[in-house]
Design goal:
Keywords: Signal. 22% of the residues lie in helices and 32% in strands. The protein contains three helices and nine strands.
């Protein structure tokens, strides 16, 4: 199944900026996609097959960690703390409602650290929700074999940076 996800990610990568962010992969697997929307970003997406998703989005100058569940109905502008339990550390990170079914973790340093650790072969993590949502185990250990494909996706970002002028023109602050 990992091979299927890797092949599909490679196909989407070869399609270039027009590739969709959502890939059809088996539930419980990670996928990689490049999306030209919102200035362009690469995404690692995990779909549990039960409506739960975790997504790391890495843009040219930004990073985001989005957690969603199709069963949620979050009020607009709601927020709370989500516990992240790793092998040797625990963090409490503020999560803000992005849509009625998703939250974005507001600590970019934690998102960057989790993505770096996952690409380095880190162990799975547990998400501990303060409400009635049961804890989730997120299999970030499965990301490591895909790190080179993600690196290729990230190299695409520099080619599509909207801040770079076309045709070799110089930048001007005013």
């Amino acid at each position: 199944m990992r091979q299927l996800a890797t092949i599909m990610a490679a196909i989407a990568f070869c399609m270039g900026p027009a590739a969709a962010a959502d890939l059809a992969v088996s539930p419980g697997q990670w996928s990689i996609a490049y999306t030209a929307n919102q200035g362009g970003y690469c995404a690692f997406v995990w779909d549990s097959g039960l409506g739960q998703k975790v997504e790391f989005r890495k843009g040219f100058k930004s990073i985001a960690w989005i957690i969603s569940d199709a069963a949620w109905n979050l009020p607009q502008a709601s927020q709370g703390k989500i516990g992240i339990v790793a092998h040797n550390a625990t963090w409490q990170v503020t999560a803000k409602a992005l849509t009625p079914t998703s939250v974005m973790l507001s600590d970019a340093d934690t998102a960057r650290g989790m993505l770096y650790n996952a690409m380095s072969g880190s162990a799975d993590i547990e998400l501990d929700f303060p409400g009635t949502e049961p804890n989730w185990i997120v299999p970030i250990s499965r990301i490591y074999p895909m790190h080179s494909s993600f690196g290729k996706c990230l190299s695409q970002l520099g080619k599509s940076d909207p801040a770079k002028p076309a045709g070799g023109a110089s930048l001007a602050p005013f």
